[in-house]
Amino acid sequence: MALQDWSDRLLETMIVSDRMAAAAVIEQALETGIPPIQVISGILDPALIRLGHGWEEETLSLAQGFVAAKIAEDVMLRCIPETGDSPPTKGAVVIGNIEDDFHSLGRRIVTLFLTAAGWEVHDLGNDVPAERFIDTALAVGARVVAASAMMQTTALNIRNLRELIDARGLQQRIKLGVGGAVFNWRPELVAEVGGDGTARNAVGADELCTRLQAAAQAGG
Amino acid sequence: MNAYQRLMGTLTGQPVDRVPVLAVLGAYGGKLTNTGLPTLYRDPAAWLAGQQAAQESFGFDLVMSPFDYSAIAEAFGGTVTWFDDQPPNMKRPAVDNAQAALKLPLPDPARSGRLPAILASTRMLATQYKETVPIIGVVPGPAILPSLVIGLGPWMETILFDQPTARELLEHTGPFFVAWCNALLQAGADCLVVTEGMAAAEIAPRSLFAELALPHLRSTFAQVQGPKVMHQTGGSINHTLDLLPGLAGLAAVAIGSKDDLAQARTLAGPDLNLIGNLDNLSFSSLSADELYHKAMACLRSAAPAGHYILANAGADIALTTPPENLHALLAASSDYAAGKGCPA
């Protein structure tokens, strides 16, 4: 069976939110001799990309996204130990809900997907002050900070983070990704809060972080 | 014909002078009376004044008891964030997992936190408006209620990965849902809008709703002594709509702005009342004329079959919504009744 067929089967289990069936698909793939790292790159990754299209088309529910993220985490946990060493990371990213925002679900899903995609994710949780985003990013060498907010009121608190990045002269070194439901409803908010970019869903966060990190590295 | 007669007439299939029009003007009442929202949501007299102002300014076919779920989260032991330009919101839930929630005592509607203030607001509305303007109470659906106790993320995790515990927690919180609904009805609410997130396509697939939420809705609705409207909490509900008829006391379903009204009628059958489905986000961004035409399109689609109420599809209408946009909704209903909007 080709990798694409395995990926199709995995995607099917994600869409119907069947975590056990997903585990069975991965076990079968491994039993046929597909190396664990190829399970991630050739089976999981393509399934996640197609899942992202489902989100774009608004055909998936929050519950399906949540289970899909868990399945991605399961696959990573199952496959990573068998690679022998930690997989190469794409880089470090600091993520959190901005000050006064407590809607953690989206952030947690993004964290799972970024981890599954190979990022070293530093998840600071809810209600994170601007200083903590920046201090953590500097401490772990992250070139991307990602601030999440669900509502317009809390999204506007991201401006404090933008101002602090600028005030410390870090605008070339650290790029600011923003996300959350309100940015999908009101895309103009990205610029209003000073975001360097956004992603419409968790799967898109990988591409966003890759782009922002490249921009930060190009900036010095 | 007053607003109460118009709405109740529509719900019971009687002839009315025009299609009733509802708009969720909770926080907007504070804007009209120049009252800070932290005061509006704490002080029953301020809430009554806000609803009076909304009624006098526009004359929609309802007044509302406070639409404030943070009061429920707080009554369970959570904390609240207050805003100047939107209703208060839960800051931290009481506990962060289902097992801990099972040990929490249930709030008492008459004694816990701000719940008595909501009941007092409802009683004051009843004194002012009983049988002239419908008094609508708004409650969280029984299957999404645990998210106000442990947070949405942990609740989703529980229902997806630990259904026995999820059922146990629903059993635990169910009596509070019933007690809170009945307390609002006893305080004077004519009808309850039940915003059940688990019924929305954006939250849960149909299978999960049918398997976990629907049985709980059946059991709790049967214990609530008044009419209920199922609401999609700003999402889409057509994917579960056909499962809803037959729920005890179900008077209507509020359709989401992305739902197709004609399809909703097919799914609901001829006798279930439908409410909706103007997009909340359009209220502040469109002109009055554009909103009028959107309202007229809803009326043309849904009013001919009867059992239809024009309304916004989501929660509170944004404070930035110009008053003329709200007047446009009522104008559309009046013009439709006068034959101006009827298809040739």
Give structural notes:
The complex is a heterodimer of chains A (220) and B (344). With 220 residues, chain A is of the alpha/beta class. Chain A folds into 2 domains: 3-83, Methionine synthase domain (Methyltransferase, Methionine Synthase (B12-binding Domains), Chain A, domain 1); 91-219, 3-Layer(aba) Sandwich (Rossmann fold). Helix content of chain A is 59%, strand content 11%. Chain A has 11 helices and 5 strands. Chain A has helices spanning 3-15, 19-31, 36-56, 62-79, 105-116, 130-140, 152-155, 158-167, 181-185, 189-192, 202-219, and strands at 91-97, 119-123, 144-148, 175-179, 197-198. In chain A, helix 2 runs parallel beside helix 4 (62-79). Chain A starts with a helix and ends with a helix. In chain B, helix 15 packs parallel to helix 16 (323-337). Chain B contains 16 helices and 10 strands. Chain B is globular and about 60 Å long. In chain B, strand 6, helix 11 and strand 7 (228-231) form a beta-alpha-beta unit. Chain B starts with a helix and ends in a 7-residue tail after the last helix. Chain B has a single domain (3-337), classed as TIM Barrel (Alpha-Beta Barrel), CATH 3.20.20. With 344 residues, chain B is of the alpha/beta class. Classes of the chains: A alpha/beta (220), B alpha/beta (344). Chain A binds chain B through residues 17, 19, 58, 61-64, 66-67, 70, 100, 102-105, 108, 127, 151-153, 185, and chain B through 81, 83, 85-86, 89-92, 151-153, 156-157, 159-161, 200-205, 208, 258, 281.
